[in-house]
């Protein structure tokens, strides 16, 4: 599932094509369009150029030069943006001078929007600050005291960009149990959580994904008898806030 590091990678892909003329927009599957028809998307974008894109959490936001509109992309569970060869799950293709950008998505749970200024503000109004950018003091204020840590970290209205893999990885690195209510953390634990979140995200952004390294929890979470890469204890699997969760009972007691 694309999380903040993946979407940052997609932003870089789109940024490489900012300023290039969009020669055509081919919609192979209009089911990924949200609030805009294939005809209007093509008419609005053909002949225009994307301005430098930005990211907020899992949202990729690309202003369209020459128009008071913005293309907004969300990648759901299986989406991506690439310049690779054609694939049967390509849903929308942007043809530009020198290449093509392909919005690819197998499950089609999210998609593309074309919004004016007010529509963009309304869409993002309930989105929390970006997990990579939020300062330590603001992070302390954001954590809802009664929410369990895993649920709080993955709530996009609290903090944007974190999903299952990142939340579990960050909590494992911070040695905090995912079911601990945020209000029970000491100030030092909150600061440690913030620090581990920042360092984990920076490494993952460089990798363009949450890397399944042997030294990471992510590298062992899907093993039938996975063990903690730090202490060797058998990992626990359960559900927290309706989400599949993995943790080490020794490193993250609670």
TrEMBL record:
Record keywords, A-Z: DNA damage, DNA repair, DNA-binding, Glycosidase, Hydrolase, Lyase, Metal-binding, Multifunctional enzyme, Zinc, Zinc-finger
Q: Which residues form the FPG-type domain?
A: 216-253
| Entry keyword RNA-binding | no
Xref: SUPFAM superfamilies = Glucocorticoid receptor-like (DNA-binding domain), N-terminal domain of MutM-like DNA repair proteins, S13-like H2TH domain
GO BP terms: namely:
base-excision repair
**Listed cofactors:** Zn(2+)
Give a yes or no for keyword Disulfide bond in this entry.
no
Question: Start and end of every Formamidopyrimidine-DNA glycosylase catalytic domain?
Answer: 2-110
Listed GO molecular functions? 8-oxo-7,8-dihydroguanine DNA N-glycosylase activity; class I DNA-(apurinic or apyrimidinic site) endonuclease activity; damaged DNA binding; zinc ion binding
Q: Which transformation does this protein catalyse, written as a reaction?
A: Hydrolysis of DNA containing ring-opened 7-methylguanine residues, releasing 2,6-diamino-4-hydroxy-5-(N-methyl)formamidopyrimidine; 2'-deoxyribonucleotide-(2'-deoxyribose 5'-phosphate)-2'-deoxyribonucleotide-DNA = a 3'-end 2'-deoxyribonucleotide-(2,3-dehydro-2,3-deoxyribose 5'-phosphate)-DNA + a 5'-end 5'-phospho-2'-deoxyribonucleoside-DNA + H(+)
Question: Which family would the database say this protein is a member of?
Answer: Belongs to the FPG family.
Kindly provide the name given to this protein in its UniProt entry: Formamidopyrimidine-DNA glycosylase
Q: What is the lineage of its organism?
A: Bacteria, Bacillati, Actinomycetota, Actinomycetes, Pseudonocardiales
